[in-house]
Amino acid sequence: MRFVKCCFGFVNPGAIMREILSIQYLRAIAAAMVVVYHCFYGALAPADRTGFAYQIWSSGVDVFFVVSGFVMWVTTSRRSIGPLAFWRARIARIVPLYWVALAFYWPILVALRGLDGAPSLSEVILAFGFVPYRDPATDLISPYLTSGWTLTHEMIFYAVFGAGLLIADLRLRVALVVTVFAVLIGLRVVIGAETPIAFRLTSPLALEFLAGMALAIAWERFAGAAFVSILRPLAAVAAVAFLILVTRPHVEAWPRALVFGVPAVAFAFLAVSLEDRLRARPIGWLKRWGDASYSIYLANEVFLVLVDQVMPRQVLPLLVEVALLFAASIAVGLGVNRFVEVPLGHVFRHRRLRLREAGSGSSG
To answer: What is the C-alpha separation between 223 and 8, in angstroms, rounded?
Structure first.
């Protein structure tokens, strides 16, 4: 994933927008956690997949959601951008690589399951359209590329957040976005979450995006304040204590937005509060992983399915097997980023520039 260029509130308006290394590092760590989660999946018995020690690796997704809310705010709050331009940019960023992954994965599933067991045409269409459905092969509310369930939440957030860009006043914009999601979450009590669309549309996971926005707003206002350095260790201790002492016994009973969302926000705060220190001593390989985090996230599931067909599992010691699969998954994700994601980004970026120039010419 390419670096997000943004301008913090404490940077002079005329300054060149710079990369947020802490956010890239968070993305790298989040992607790595998801890869670990998937690597363990094939080696663990179904009963062992419900334990806290395994499930915590999936919280990389929650970090992604918090980061998304943070980035969407800081990249729009200090410049004028309309909903259509915002949506075009997000679609160009998210959709092409996801569609490539879906198109690549479908014939693999046909080869593994046969045509009758592979995703049907209707399931393929729903997956390409980010429309949630219950996958009969897994009984999960997800597309046939399971990792894509998170992108449905991203698209819902982009839809609401983009509509908020119609409002110039930032306080009213926040009020609108928060109100819409409060209504959607509240609808779960009224209409339930039995259907796949209702399950995703009314999900409390939207609170993680909103928390990311809140963190960005607070950061723009209070970055550099003395009390931030005091809050930093408190946030780290509180997050660890919350995970281990409070939510661990209730990992399945409590809402995910609480179990993993609260610690994700605390760790995101810890990371962005260290931005100046991280910038002084950048970590090249971690930054590279952050660049490629989207590719790593999408590619690792496909890669591990292929590995399962050619390599017997549970032959090596568990941690050795997971370490080898992890290293290979990261390498594949880095390759997909370089040879697929980046070229796709160039194509769509140039296309947007041509459309913008054409629009400027016609208006002259």
So the answer is: 9
What are the tens digits of pLDDT across the range 106-158? 999 999 999 999 999 999 999 999 999 999 999 999 999 999 999 999 999 99
Residue 232 lies in a domain: no
pTM equals 0.90
- 350 domain-assigned: yes
Question: Which two tokens mark 57?
Answer: 């690796």
Q: Over the Cα atoms of the chain, what is R_g? A: 21
Look at residues 259, 274, 268 and name the one whose alpha carbon lies nearest to residue 214: 268
Whether residue 221 lies inside any domain: the answer is: no
Domain range for 141 is: 5-211+276-363
Does residue 19 lie in a domain region? yes
Q: What is the 3-state secondary structure (H, E, C) of 185-230?
A: HHHHHHHCCCCHHHHHHCCCCHHHHHHHHHHHHHHHHHCCCHHHHH
Number of domains in the chain: 1
Q: Find residue 5's DSSP bridge partners.
A: 19
In tens, the pLDDT along 203-255 reads 999 999 999 999 999 998 887 676 677 788 888 788 878 777 777 777 777 88
Among the listed residues 338, 310, 340, the one whose alpha carbon sits nearest the alpha carbon of residue 325: 310
Per-residue model confidence (pLDDT) at position 18: 64
